[in-house]
Design a protein that fits this description.
Number of helices: 22
Distance between the termini: 61 Å
Number of domains: 2
Helix content: 55-70%
Radius of gyration: 25 Å
Number of strands: 6
Length: 508
């Protein structure tokens, strides 16, 4: 029966994932520069697994953790597009994350799981961006690797809850230690969350241990925690992400935008953890779900408060604090769903037919699939910021262009991709970095501020679409045509008058 039910959960997760891909495979919900930077790393790995050091088109992405980007390359191979591969991994992570979260709720004792899962899904729809829950990582901003790593954390927690009580606890902790190495290869912040979960579990073990075994339990916990800290601190991603997080980037977080609101949310999360710990104390054998959610809540809230303290002493940034907003918001919604789900379950139990109906595997699987579909749609964004299929079409044309007769020119001077028909300015910037290997410091000011691109003679070639007003004066400088693209000679375009700052601003 358990295997049949598990098969059903996996099957409906795949079906919901297929549905999301069918309706959103061509839609990207972000025009952030982070989209360009993550794609540049994905594309570079697709070109050459053994990249050259200090690639000027990648900058900090040279030392960024590559786990999610490798997955994107592999997913893009059968699709013939690294961009579509990255998009598929992002959407798949969204489905995995909420499927894992629902699986955790299904581990609740009694019949609370299905109703709580359904309530959670409805809350995500009602929320509609007020709190930036998981999934918002790739909407507006494009924190691709963080979403992938967060999905892994929830999936790993769901597995650990199932293992707890079914095997020796030391094996559960060994599983979490190994899992943390994998997560750290994707993104540091979720890896720190998982390390915090391990620390919380070891702390509960020490508190709950009999007096005669307490010292032994504490010592074993210290050793395991030291190993966990070492695996994170010594991991290459630790130094890399620490350097990146020092940059005070901007993030739109809705109600949790100010740093003080994140501190308040952390305190509320800690308060909601108390009932979970009490529930676990009442039934330690059957309430592993409550224990794991409690330590997860303590981990994300404690880490956020620690970042706020570090920021106060000028050892951190607002950006480092704000990165916890997704986890805090999601946890608050989950806890509200658990409270409402328990109330709904208590009322439903009064109906005798509900007990018979809800005991069947088909009911649980059906509600799981329905809740997952609603949850994913509640986190998805209906707006069409970027047409992924059009991007993939331009990607193929640019790759062919680079591999063709223009290759010697491109190797001599940087190439500017600009004014592709129907494409957002970030996509032009993205292709300049990724496909054309143009150093970021050359093109970043142009694409992010609308400044003059500088002397056009500094570019060997300029790749654009026909009929664009910015390069109307340089139509005599066309060196070749390929697909729907024009290739202009940069030096000729400079002599023809180029594009001034005023023209650039007017064209925008």
């Amino acid at each position: 029966m358990q295997k049949t039910r598990l098969f059903g959960y996996v099957l409906v997760t795949l079906l919901v994932g297929a549905g999301l891909l069918a309706f959103n495979a061509g839609v990207v919900w972000s025009t952030s520069v982070d989209l360009a930077h993550h794609y540049a790393l994905v594309f570079r790995l697709a070109e050459n697994w053994h990249m050259t050091a200090n690639d000027p088109s990648l900058m900090e992405m040279n030392f960024y953790p590559r786990g999610s980007h490798i997955a994107a390359v592999l997913a893009g191979m059968p699709l013939g597009s690294p961009f579509l591969g990255m998009h598929m991994v992002a959407l798949g992570s969204l489905v995995l994350l909420w499927a894992s979260c629902l699986a955790i709720l299904y581990a609740a004792p009694g019949r609370k799981g299905p109703l709580t899962a359904l309530v959670l899904a409805l809350l995500l729809v009602v929320n509609h961006g007020a709190l930036r829950v998981h999934g918002a990582e790739i909407s507006g901003a494009y924190h691709f690797a963080q979403l992938v790593a967060q999905a892994l954390v929830f999936a790993l927690l769901a597995v650990a809850i199932r293992l707890d009580g079914r095997t020796r606890r030391i094996w559960v902790y060994a599983f979490l230690l190994l899992a943390n190495v994998v997560v750290a290869s994707v993104h540091l912040l979720p890896a720190l969350e998982l390390l915090g979960v391990l620390a919380g579990l070891l702390l509960l073990d020490a508190v709950a241990a009999p007096a005669a075994l307490r010292l032994r339990t504490v010592l074993a916990g210290v050793v395991l925690l030291a190993i966990g800290i070492a695996t994170v601190v010594l991991h290459p991603s630790f130094a890399a992400m620490r350097a990146i997080s020092a940059h005070n980037g901007g993030m739109s977080l809705g109600l949790l935008g100010p740093v003080w609101s994140l501190g308040l949310a952390s305190l509320i999360v800690l308060a909601t953890v108390v009932p979970l710990l009490r529930a676990w104390q009442r039934d330690r054998a059957g309430n592993a779900m409550h224990k794991y959610l409690a330590v997860y809540g303590m981990a994300i809230a404690g880490l956020c408060l620690l970042q706020i303290v570090l920021r106060y002493f000028s050892l951190g940034s607002d950006y480092a604090v704000k990165k916890y907003a997704y986890a805090l918001a999601s946890f608050l919604v989950i806890r509200l769903a658990m409270w409402l789900g328990a109330k709904a379950s208590a009322r439903a139990e009064r109906w005798q037919g509900f007990a018979r109906f809800s005991s069947g595997s088909a009911f649980g699987v059906a509600v799981f699939g329905l809740a997952l579909a609603i949850a994913v749609l509640g986190c998805a964004r209906m707006r069409h910021d970027v047409d992924a299929y059009k991007v993939a079409s331009f990607e193929r044309q640019l790759v062919d262009l680079r591999a063709g007769a223009a290759r010697p020119v491109m190797q001599g001077k940087p190439t500017l991709v600009a004014e592709l028909n129907g494409m957002h300015v970030v996509i032009n910037y993205m292709f300049s970095l990724a496909v054309m290997h143009t150093p970021r410091e050359i093109v970043l000011p142009y694409f992010t501020t609308g400044m003059d691109p500088g002397p056009l003679s500094q570019y060997g070639l300029i790749v654009t679409s026909p009929g664009q007003p910015r390069f109307a004066a340089a139509q005599a400088c066309i060196s070749s045509r390929t697909g729907t693209l024009l290739v202009l000679d940069g030096a000729c375009a400079e002599q023809a008058g180029g594009v001034g700052a005023k023209a650039t601003a007017a064209a925008r």
